[in-house]
Amino acid sequence: MVSKRTRVAEILRRLPFGEKVVVMGWVRTKRESKKGFAFIELNDGSCFSNLQLVVDEKIKDYEKIIKKVTTGCSITAQGQLVESPGGKQAIELQVEHLEVIGEADPGSYPLQKKRHSFEFLRKIAHLRPRTNTFGAVTRVRNFLGWSIHKFFQERGFYYLNTPIITCSDCEGAGEMFQVTTLDLENLPRKDGCVDYSHDFFGKKANLTVSGQLEAEAYALALGNVYTFGPTFRAENSNTRRHLAEFWMVEPEMAFCELDGNIEIAEEFLKTLCAGVLESCDEDMKFFEKFIDKDVIKRLEKITLNNFEVVEYREAVKLLEPKASDFQYPVGWGCDLQAEHEKYLTDEVFGKPVVIINYPREIKPFYMKVNDDEKTVAAMDVLFPKLGEVIGGSQREDSYEILRARIRESGLDEDDYWWYLELRKYGSVPHSGFGLGFERFVQFVTGMANIRDVIPFPRTPGNAEF
Predict the structure, then answer these.
(1) SS3 of 76, please?
(2) H-type alpha helices, 124-171
(3) Pick from 135, 136, 435, 142: which is nearest to 285 by CA?
(4) Contact 263, 293 (CB under 8 A)
(5) Is the Cβ–Cβ distance between 111 and 72 less than 8 Å?
(6) What is the pLDDT of residues 163-191, one digit of tens each?
(7) How do the domains of the chain map onto residue ranges?
(8) Class of domain 8-113
(9) pLDDT tens digits, 68-117
(10) What is the CATH number of domain 128-173+209-452?
């Protein structure tokens, strides 16, 4: 096998007619002619488009090799790039040497040339990246992941790896996956309860729902940091918007109040949307044609419009006249639901909206209490069609107020001793936010189900692959 290869994306960008190249990839289709040649559509994952190979019977062992070439098999081909006489492609490879690397049994290979439902493809998640849709999703997801790092690195943020295993609950939600080495068939007990002193960490531990608290510790030393890693929530929700394992982007900024937090969040989202339109145009045109006809227009609107900033109390007033149309109630103290968020973005403003200053009772303990003592300096960035894309806040920087908030939230103060100490030693105003990466990829691609924008989804009752 020849190891040096040229990627299809590179070939199509340069159109190097007359150049000798080696390509490797997987066969999408094969058409044989009675005139002694065959057409092979090759895809190597580097771009949406296939490269057409023209194989003449003059090559060595033509009949033997062509018989092995089936949909799904892997091949290597060497030859000359020539201008294609056909109208579907500008360039093709005139093959001089062809080798089948890995055969694919046509009788059992599940991805034959036809449309497959996304539900079916989830059952073969190990093979679905070979389809047009999931190849495009993966390339867009890759670009967005790279763009996130680029955005923060160019602005002087430090990339931080926060713990996946934690003994504190950032949100106080209680919907966490427990991590233990205890024998579940023979649990040690003390006073009728599980004795976690025998566990690996000597106390109850869980998979993290957020790296925010740890990021605050580093922001209060280095200025600006960000995390980008997996988080977990044991919420028993079987919907198109929920995953048990998902990735979060969480920047944290010292000496930054709510206005600065909103400013960086808007710049961040606009930069990502503009970048994907410029750099993933071929994949985005596929999504526009086959997945969501308005997806490109929506992204363009994000980049062109300033975000509308609205107080929570004003948002409620805008929603109340339509209260009878909503499934969930509207009023002061109600947490806004997806239907409320979409009404504000799609019907009232027609662009992204930032809701600020929520009632303290409906927001987590770490958010900065405003001077009115009724609200906290929270912000939710809402996108048309999607709803909430970012949630964030200015963090409480007062030791006494934070301590009181922990207590009123029903949490154990001892679990947050170190977090409280940050407010005793050089505390400063600081802010941050969280972006659910999969939900954002879902918005960018127009995919209807969040399970189709992560390689191997983890949902209630499903941990395959």
Answers:
(1) strand
(2) 132-154
(3) 136
(4) no
(5) yes
(6) 999 987 766 556 899 999 999 999 999 99
(7) 8-113, 128-173+209-452
(8) mainly beta
(9) 999 999 999 999 999 998 777 899 999 999 999 999 999 999 998 788 99
(10) 3.30.930.10
